[in-house]
Structure formats: C-alpha cells, structure tokens
Specification:
about 270 residues; alpha/beta; 2-enoyl-CoA Hydratase, Chain A, domain 1; 6-stranded mixed β-sheet; binds 3-methylmercaptopropionate-CoA (MMPA-CoA)
C-alpha cells in the first residue's frame, strides 16, 4: 500500500467513503466471526493512519454477520506457535492500530452486535462512541483460554469499567449485556433496532462539527487523560487557544450572537 489511501487495497476491511465525509468500515470476515488476524490489524494500521488526512470526517466501524468481533484469531495464533518476542510484536501492531484510532482525531463510532469479546472488546474500546443493540454482549475470555489481554484492554476497558470489574471479567469470564453494560460504561447507547442505523445517525451529526474541533475532541481528551492535572490544564489551554479561534468558528459564533443558531434545550 502506497502513500495515498486506495480503498480497493483492503480485503479484510470493506470501506466506503460517503460524500458527507462519513466512512463506513466493515469487518469482513464473518465466517471467522471477524476474528482479528495479522492482515486485518495491518489494514487497520494503514486505514487509521491515513483516513484523517484523506477526507474522513467520521467513521462508522461495523461488521458483517451476527458478531462484531471474536478477538484475536486463535487459530492463526495456534498455528503460528509464536515465540514471546513474536507475540510482543503482534501486540505492538495492535497497539499501533488502536492508538491511531483513538488518537487520530477522526470520530470513530462502533456499531456493535453479538460477541464483542477479547480483542473485539479491545477494538471497540478504542472507538470514541459505542452503540450496542439487544444482541450485543461483552466479555474477556482470555483467562479461560490461558491467555492475557494484549490489545489495550488493561488500559481502555479498565478505564471504562474500573479495575475491580476488569479483574473480575478477566478471572471469571463474566459476560455483560443490555442496560447493565450501558450502566457500566461499556457502551454509551443501547438501541432496540439496528446499532448501525444509530451509529450512522451519530456519525452524520458528528461530521457536521468543524474538523479541527473533532480533531481536538478525538485526540486531546485521550492525551490529556495521560497527563498530570497540571500538564493537562496547560495542554487544554493551548488546544483551546488554537481551536476556539479558528476562522470557521466565527460564522457559528456570529449565528449565536444574532440569534439564528439553535439553542440548547432539554429533550422533549
Ligand atoms: C475463530 C474465532 C477466533 C470464531 N479466532 N477463529 N476470543 C474468544 O475466546 C472468542 C472465541 N470465539 C467464540 O467464542 C465464538 O466463536 C463466538 C461466540 C464468537 C461465535 O460463536 P459461533 O457459534 O457463532 O461460531 P463458532 O462455531 O464458534 O465459530 C465459527 C467459525 O469462526 C469457526 O471457524 P470454522 O473454520 O471452523 O468454521 C471458528 O473457528 C471461527 N472463530 N472465533 C479464530 N477468535 C492481542 S491479545 C487478544 C486476546 C484475545 O482476543 S483472546 C480471544 C478471545
């Protein structure tokens, strides 16, 4: 794959770029329950590296079949009989892909269904917004498989649910679903219908924001969380200095000042 993003180069991801800047990225290995093999991870590195500079204003991450993602490709891993060093490098590629997703500055909205397990939950937790449907369930089965998380769960899933629940999920394979999963923070939305439809609605709304504002929201918040409060407040001031004085924001401020902009109202 060269310097520009050629969407036809992708095999395990099916990608469509809408004219409104909303891209749909579909995990495309339903027969393997969208298990993440090395090729898929490499495609994600390529995609999330280049999408922010290729016109993507929001990305909906979805999946073929009934399950979002079954995590690490256990069959590939078994066959490869990897050395510790080899698997460390595999994990580093996962981190490369998921960090580019989380810190890349383009909103990623995951449309979840069925199994969101192991590395599948690691992938989902790198998205900025997660939408679950009634079939969605979350688990970390690594413990039962003799494995450990390697794609960022210790960081991102712990952030979402807290240390004690994270350890319980890993030790016991506990499954969360429905409203309980939402209450814990594993997803922000639970829908009765299609998670894809809801994710598209959110993506379109998000894509209407100014790109620099979205860039700040989808990179600065994560970076600042890694900093001390002192450093984060400094960084926040710098980011706000850049974002809040951007030329395209003037039009929106003008609309507020002349009372043509929508007001914030409670849900009816
Ligand atoms: C797979 C994988 C996989 C399915 N790697 N091939 N993740 C797990 O422990 C989850 C493992 N998967 C499952 O528990 C189930 O497959 C599902 C609940 C996701 C779906 O169940 P089901 O009954 O619909 O499908 P199935 O019959 O189990 O699998 C259908 C096919 O998908 C079958 O292949 P086939 O060629 O025999 O038809 C399965 O082998 C294949 N498949 N899941 C490879 N995960 C960086 S570290 C991250 C650590 C982890 O992620 S550990 C993995 C945790």
């Amino acid at each position: 794959m060269g310097r520009t993003l050629d969407l036809s180069d992708f095999k395990n991801l099916a990608i469509t770029a809408g004219e409104d800047g909303v891209w749909v990225v579909t995990l495309n290995r339903a027969a393997k329950r969208n298990a993440l093999d090395l090729d898929t991870i490499e495609e994600m590195v390529e995609l999330f590296d280049k999408a922010p500079r290729s016109g993507a204003r929001a990305i909906v991450l979805t999946a073929e079949g009934d399950h979002f993602c079954a995590g690490l490709d256990l069959v590939e891993h078994h066959k490869a009989d990897r050395s510790p060093e080899d698997f460390m490098h595999v994990c580093l590629r996962w981190h490369e892909a998921f960090n580019k997703m989380e810190y890349g500055g383009v909103p990623v909205i995951a449309a979840l269904k069925g199994a969101v397990v192991g590395g599948g939950l690691e992938l989902a937790s790198a998205a900025h917004i997660r939408v679950a449907d009634q079939s969605t369930y979350f688990a970390l089965p690594e413990g039962q498989r003799g494995l450990f998380t390697g794609g960022g769960a210790t960081i991102r899933v712990t952030d979402l649910v807290g240390k004690a629940r994270m350890i319980d999920m890993m030790l016991t394979g506990r499954v969360y679903q429905g409203q309980e999963a939402i209450d814990l923070g594993l997803a922000q939305y639970l829908v009765d219908g299609s998670s894809f439809d809801k994710a598209m609605e959110l993506a379109k709304r998000t894509a209407a924001n100014l790109p620099l504002t979205n860039f700040a929201i989808c990179s600065a918040v994560s970076h600042m969380k890694n900093m001390s409060a002192m450093d984060a407040s400094y960084a926040e001031a710098v980011v706000a200095g850049v974002v809040n004085t951007q030329a395209p924001a003037r039009e929106r401020l003008e609309a507020f000042a002349n009372k043509t902009a929508a007001r914030v109202r409670p849900n009816s």
